[in-house]
Amino acid sequence: MLDWLKAFLKRHVIDGVPPDLARCEFGCKKLQCEHDEWANCKRRIAEMESALLAEERSRRAPSTALPHCETMIEAKAQ
Prior knowledge:
By secondary structure, the protein is mainly alpha-helical. About 80% of the residues lie in helices and about 0% in strands. The chain has one domain (about 20-75). It has helices at about 1-10, 20-25, 35-40, 40-75.
């Protein structure tokens, strides 16, 4: 019964929040901002930059690990 109710509410009542707005919706004390306040918000910009850097690092991580693994394999072969 609860699963059905949860699914119903999720489909008909609860809207998803885009990730760029989620930080403001759930992580900020201010209830509402004017558009220019939002566009220039230092907290929002810093968090977005941090998220972008983390994403970039995670994309690069596998490729930076491979040369190390190849070096270890070559050392074992000798």
